[in-house]
């Protein structure tokens, strides 16, 4: 009986991983509505660039870079992005209060409330989008409409496996009240 239960759980886990791996987040459609804000989560290649491109294209009024290292400055961003100093000076906020996906959502929620926004575009890597979406929905509930705008990547097996485990463990932790 225990072996059957263990086998069932292992099969369920493996099928979940397979499904997770083939249903990664996707970029928002071109015709997706504009939002008041963009929140980008640091930690992956191309995330900040995509968020700034969306801001420059008029997809939102303001951008929060959540989880930025406290030593990063606007001048560092201008240098990294090859200009865009006016856009960064007027419309980009650096958030350095968060250290993980859950605290990214908390930091973004405080920022959203401070500015009175009711919709946002969330930018992160495709392999990270499911967990980020889960945390943002938990934190903001129905009070904020979210458009998910994933940065396409080519994640390796190790990246997918690690992210899947974080996602599963977080879901279990929430169910257990942790």
TrEMBL record:
It holds the Pfam family DUF218. Signal peptide: none annotated. GO terms for biological process: Gram-negative-bacterium-type cell wall biogenesis; peptidoglycan metabolic process. It comes from the Bacteria. Residues 37-153 form the DUF218 domain. GO terms for cellular component: plasma membrane. This is Uncharacterized SAM-binding protein YcdF (DUF218 family). It comes from Sphingomicrobium lutaoense.
């Amino acid at each position: 009986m225990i072996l059957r239960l263990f086998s069932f759980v292992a099969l369920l886990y493996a099928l979940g991983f397979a499904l997770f791996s083939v249903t990664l987040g996707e970029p928002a459609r071109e015709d997706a509505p504009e939002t008041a804000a963009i929140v980008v989560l640091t930690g992956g290649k191309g995330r900040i660039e995509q968020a700034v491109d969306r801001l420059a294209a008029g997809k939102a009024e303001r951008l929060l870079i959540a989880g930025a290292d406290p030593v990063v400055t606007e001048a560092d961003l201008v240098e990294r992005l090859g200009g865009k100093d006016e856009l960064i000076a007027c419309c980009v906020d650096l958030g350095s209060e968060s250290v993980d996906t859950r605290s990214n959502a908390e930091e973004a929620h405080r920022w959203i409330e401070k500015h009175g926004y009711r919709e946002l575009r969330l930018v992160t890597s495709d392999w990270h989008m499911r967990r980020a979406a889960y945390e943002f929905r938990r934190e903001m509930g129905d009070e904020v409409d979210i458009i998910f705008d994933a940065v396409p990547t080519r994640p390796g097996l190790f990246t997918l496996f690690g992210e899947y485990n974080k996602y599963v463990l977080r879901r279990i932790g929430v169910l257990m009240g942790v």
